[in-house]
Amino acid sequence: MVLAALLLVTGCFAAPQQDAGNGRLNVVMMQPPRSALSPFSDDAFKLSRLGIAETLVNLDADGNPLPGLAASWRQAGPVEWEFSLRPGVRFHDGTSLNAAVAVNALQRAAQAQPKPRILDGVELTVTEAGPDRVVVRTATPDPMLPQRLSSPQLSVLATAAYQPDGTVNPAGAGTGPFVLTELRGSQGASLERFNEHWNGPARAPGLDVSFVPDGAARAAALRTGTGDIVEAIPASQAGLLEPGTFTEVPMPRTNTLYLNSRPGGVFGDPGLRAAVREAIDVAPIVSGPYENRADIAQGLLGPAIPWSAQRPPRSGATPPAAARGERITLATFSDRAELPEVAAILEQQLERAGFQVELVVREYSQIETDALDGRFDAFILSRATVLDSGDPAAYLRSDFACDGGFNLSGLCDPAVDAALREAEGEGDMRTRRAKILEAEREILRTDAAIPMLHERVVQGNAPGVQGAAFDPRERMLVQRDTRKGAE
């Protein structure tokens, strides 16, 4: 049994432990945890990227479901799915995976406040159907339920992880190839190899993780050899790196300007939202901050989703109104190095269009709550569009449905909601994709979100490091086979 505890400390940035040939991997991540690695938050993606926690279902490169902690499944009825658990799975605390444990994990997620965004608009109940079988029922037919259960926010943790006060402590509670043994607040974490992993022990003996919001510092870690695997190197730093030490990955990630469309604000006026749409020139953003390592957006979904090129022409655009000195607050976050520069360019463009702009830039952990509360008129977000389920419908609902859990723009449009319901209820994949593109067109008609560009993320990989994942969906990074050299 592995005993683990979270140790929260404060202090300045601590560099990763220097490797003296012991095979440990120094991993440099962009954003620090915001919720002590709770799976019900975006921290869940750190649990999967670091090999701590696993889900019932995995996804292949095309977004099709594959076995994970569930070895198989079947649809038992219009709203009922049965999942058979993989035998021989043990948690880091020595307990075994069974139906009761899986039911507890999924029920806790369904009852969490706030609910994980993958469950936005979804009501589900989970019951045991035997020692190793779990039945999941939804209030309405959900043809994408297996893909939904692949979200890291629905990771299955040992029963002891779930605290009486509703918090979740993942230390020593996952099933992945690495055990979380220490979380040092926003500074870093330590992980050790889990020798009892159901698919065999990891090749690397452990991980030393640093959270480094500053992009130049992350690139420096790769150049100086203190980082073996480095997340999200800024485009401006990529040219300073040695060839062969980084990979440019086309991402299903869109840099979008969300406009606060709530009644009473400046952009409650559709004509002024249209004025912003007309004022934005993306070309200098792509050639400037992104140094041409990005693609100008034609919609919310980009070239990493090939079928999005079949989108219908836009229609129903509102004519732009004339801005007459309206004061607006434009906000973004500093964790992605390009975004403050993007904001500065947009500030100039919007002021030329007649707005008076106040610019706000903070770290993401310090600005997300205010953005969700509608405290800004405009917010620039680098947003993954298939992050949760591998299916863009989940992202569109979360961001643009009236009851969406990540509705930064406060959009509440009956036509948008109807189009989203049509897309979400469709089981035939070809038809579903066409309906997703119809929903995208309805969203773009409102000008509540103005897509600017699709990013290509640069990931650093030091010489000799093998087996790191270059995952467009940003779910995987360190895997069971990730290692230094032939270790």
UniProtKB/TrEMBL annotation:
Annotated ranges, domain Solute-binding protein family: 65-405
SUPFAM superfamilies in the cross-refs: Periplasmic binding protein-like II
Pfam families reported for this sequence: SBP_bac_5
Top-rank lineage group of the source organism: Bacteria
Family matches, as InterPro entries: Peptide/Ni-bd, SBP_5, SBP_5_dom
Official protein name in the record: ABC transporter substrate-binding protein
Originating species: Saccharopolyspora mangrovi
